[in-house]
Every structure is written in structure tokens, then in C-alpha cells.
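Board notes (copied after class):
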Amino acid sequence: MNFRIFNYRIPITLLFLCALTFAGEFIPYISPGLMLAWNSRKIQTINLKIGAGVAYNPTQHHAADMGFVNLTFGKRTCIEQTFSNLDYRYLDVEGGLFKGFFVGGSAIGLAFYKEENGKTTPVPKVGLFAGDIVFVRTDIVFRKDKKDIDIGGMLVLPINQYVFKAW
């Protein structure tokens, strides 16, 4: 069976919508990003992503100033072409909290590897990140044979309605 990213759009969208039920007032945004990292095999990787989601005010009794949830599509590529079999596309649901200017969060989703026979194989993917505009991030992909772990820095530029009003 040849899996495609769109076979998973319904469960991922449902997870995203369930996360939105905890939100109050929404501020929609898009969030492009670029990550430079090294994986567990000491291979340098570059990761391009685009996320779309909402920031929201959490409940009154929450210690955080603001929360967010988004759907993220991306592609990780090994800089050395000899390791192109480790490249993958991914789809994540990301969420986290703001406290002042500090952001912490996590991601859960699927990575899609292209096999030598041309088939696309989905595997589980998780991530953790912390920072503000520049983040320290780690992603773990659970392949059949072993875990593929990326650790690096990610530059993210969230764009929302307030950015446009400031211009």
C-alpha cells in the first residue's frame, strides 16, 4: 500500500481541532521556520517548515501568559547528498505556552520517508523546543531500524494580524 500524506489529514486535523477546544480568544498566525541541526549519525541537516495555527489566552488559573497550537508541514534534508535516504517530509501538531518572551512546546506527528522502491513510509515523530524567535529544538523519528534524532537551532518568524497593523 502506498501511503500519502493526505491519508492522515483527518486524524491530524481532528487532533488539531481538539486542541483548539481548550482555547478562548484566538489570534491566527502563520509561522515559517528554518532549522540547522545534526542528527544522531553526526550528519548536518537543514529543515524548512511552515506552520499555521492560533495563539490563545489560557484559562484564568493558568500560570502561562499565552498558549498556541498549529499544524506544521516541513521537509528535513541532509546537507550531504550521500545520506539522502534519511530525508523526510513531515506533518506535526505543535503546541506550547508563552511565559513572558520565553516559549516552550512540543510536537507530535508523522515523518514520511521515501523508500528505495518509491513507496512512502510513515513513521511516528515527536519534538521538543524552547526559546523565542531562535529555538533550541530536538526531533525524534522512530524508524523501524532505529531512532533518528536531530538536535539544533531553529529560527521561527510568527506572523499574525498585529504584525501587519504595526506596519
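Comment from the instructor: The CA atoms of residues 133 and 156 lie 5 Å apart. The chain has a mean pLDDT of 82.
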